[in-house]
Amino acid sequence: MSSPHLAAPLDVEQRPGRTPLLQVDPTADAPGWAAQHRDGLRAAVAQHGAVLVRGLGLRDAAQVAAVFQRLGTGLMAEREAFASRQTYADGVYSSTKWPANQPMCMHHELSYTLEIPSLMLFACLTPPTAGGVTAVADSTAVMNALPPELVQRFAREGWMLVRNYNDEIGASYADAFGTAERGAVEAYCRANAIELEWQPDGGLRTRQRRPALVGHPVTKQPCWFNQIAFLNEWTMDPDVHEYLVEMYGADGLPFTTCFGGGDPVGEDVVALLNQVYEANTLREPWQAGDLMLVDNVRMAHSREPYQGDREVLVGMSEPLRMPVPGGGR
């Protein structure tokens, strides 16, 4: 993430267990406010890792897009999605389609890709009637709370994401790669250090090894940066897991994660990771019109189960190129 310009500090409220909160005066011109306070808000994100802005009263997708564009440095198109999103405008998406009764566990957005967004932007148009918090957790605090030997192993090996694409569950490979043309998919995979294997039934299996720890682009502080827990088979609802294994076999699950050398990440490791994330979680329930900025390297984020309608828009900005374990491209 680029270093923010010097700016007058904003009055961000810090509360134990709660996301840092900036309460602002209501305005009819949220994009104008965003342009005026961009540097101060970016400095607050650099200080706190995440800031929820309340009072802007964001009303619709066009207004949200205008605010996102003023706060970021261009909005990124998503690649390698694991579930569908609705597109509202260029670079402005719905939150990932995921069952409302199941959590999206802590993760760093697109940490399995080689070009990641270092800044995440969220805006709530319709809050749920219960739950549905987009919570955050400091990745360095999480790393420091994990057993040193586990951190050291992941530091040495990295982590591996294994995906099986089919047309029945999750994103198809055409959705994920933006094309159904096999040659184009193969070219993308070669350029992005992804091993691929076409299946006899026309499906696709991929493996990609990524670093589990990275240095923050500004502070150089080591950060626990991955989706090891979220995209692991043991994070699935047990009934869903049992059904998928019965339907597709243990090797045919839509996704799971391994140690970088290929060894499975066990249920005990996933439970430990989620326990440590929970101990370091900050949460603030959404209100209509809220805006939140998250440093995607420093902070993991999650989506908690919810009831009722929920409309949260997402933008990704400030691409950052990730290293490949072992020094490959």
UniProtKB/TrEMBL annotation:
Main EC class the enzyme belongs to: oxidoreductase
Region (Disordered): 1-21
InterPro entries linked: AlphaKG_dependent_hydroxylases (IPR050411), TauD-like_sf (IPR042098), TauD/TfdA-like (IPR003819)
Requisite cofactors: Fe(2+)
Top-level taxon of the source organism: Bacteria
EC assignment: 1.14.11.-
Gene3D superfamilies in alphabetical order: Clavaminate synthase-like
Residues annotated as domain TauD/TfdA-like: 30-315
Keywords in alphabetical order: Antibiotic biosynthesis, Dioxygenase, Iron, Oxidoreductase
GO terms of molecular function: dioxygenase activity
Family annotation (PANTHER family): GAMMA-BUTYROBETAINE HYDROXYLASE-RELATED, TAUD_TFDA-LIKE DOMAIN-CONTAINING PROTEIN
Protein's name according to its UniProt entry: TauD/TfdA family dioxygenase
Organism of derivation: Pseudonocardia aurantiaca
Lineage: Bacteria, Bacillati, Actinomycetota, Actinomycetes, Pseudonocardiales
